[in-house]
Automatic annotation (TrEMBL):
Domain Tyrosine specific protein phosphatases: 204-283
Protein name as annotated: Receptor/non-receptor type protein-tyrosine phosphatase
PANTHER family (alphabetical): RECEPTOR-TYPE TYROSINE-PROTEIN PHOSPHATASE, TYROSINE-PROTEIN PHOSPHATASE 1
Family: Belongs to the protein-tyrosine phosphatase family. Non-receptor class subfamily.
Organism: Linderina pennispora
Residue ranges occupied by any Tyrosine-protein phosphatase domain in the UniProt entry: 22-292
Pfam families on file: Y_phosphatase
GO terms assigned for molecular function: protein tyrosine phosphatase activity
InterPro entries linked: Prot-tyrosine_phosphatase-like (IPR029021), Protein-Tyr_Phosphatase (IPR050348), PTP_cat (IPR000242), Tyr_Pase_AS (IPR016130), Tyr_Pase_cat (IPR003595), Tyr_Pase_dom (IPR000387)
Gene3D superfamilies, per the entry: Protein tyrosine phosphatase superfamily
Amino acid sequence: MTVSTFSQVLRNLPTKASQRDLAATFKEVSRREAEMISLATEHGSHDGHSLEDAQRGRNYDLNRYSNVLPFDDNRVRLEGRNDYINASHIKMPKVTPNTYIATQGPLKHSVGDFWRMVWEQKAQAIVMLVKPVEDGRSKCEMYWPTESQKLGDITVTLESERPMDARGDTLVRKFVLARYGEIRSVVQLHYMEWPDHGVPPSPLPILNIIQYLRLEIVPDTKHPVIVHCSAGVGRTGSFITLDSSIDHLATHHNEYNGDLIMDIFKNLRSQRVMMVQTLDQLAFCYEAVIYSLSEQKRMEKSPV
């Protein structure tokens, strides 16, 4: 179905035809990606994408999942000889100036690398969308100290920890990082109720996190927001989709020529595999944007 504006996409979303189109497009994008990954894994590269660095030597043991590997052309490169980390630079200049790093939850032996990345990329914010253990399985190493810890030449100190709001499902942790006399602050927003391969029970907590990120932390767009779950693709891609789409709509009078969510989804899949991993997660992105826009209208109509 052809539409000219994002408003029309959202109005048509409840129809069965629109939902079928959404499912068919998701399936086709995923099929092409799986084919590309298979060829790239077997032959080193395909359609300009190479996965060779992620599979080379010791790097392979730094991947949490063997089927979630960063492309060579936009992978994050650490300073020094051992430059590999399973993380991808994400940019969408046609949608938002915001920049991101999508990364896996650190492994026990890559915690130091994670904080090196935070420091070297001058990140001011980390968004964590996973519990360290889910359904009895380790999904992410608890990479932050309860007090203070030295990791290589970086000292990480937990300054404070508190709930973001009365709901209690998101924690705000503030860290002080010190290296060679230089001190920086980093804030971690940790949402704990997003199930693996699923969606949150409500869009509200994620929208609240985005609001806190952009209004309270206000990270410099020159430096990426680091977003991770376990693999750094499903929940991570969904969050980046929402944050970037809401930013675009806020600065472009709630409009976009085309299907904003779908364009972001396809763009993300070209930068990191399996971003927005399931159809339910893609549908959730539309639902959360609709919720955000409806709340905005409600607030505009409310008496002062």
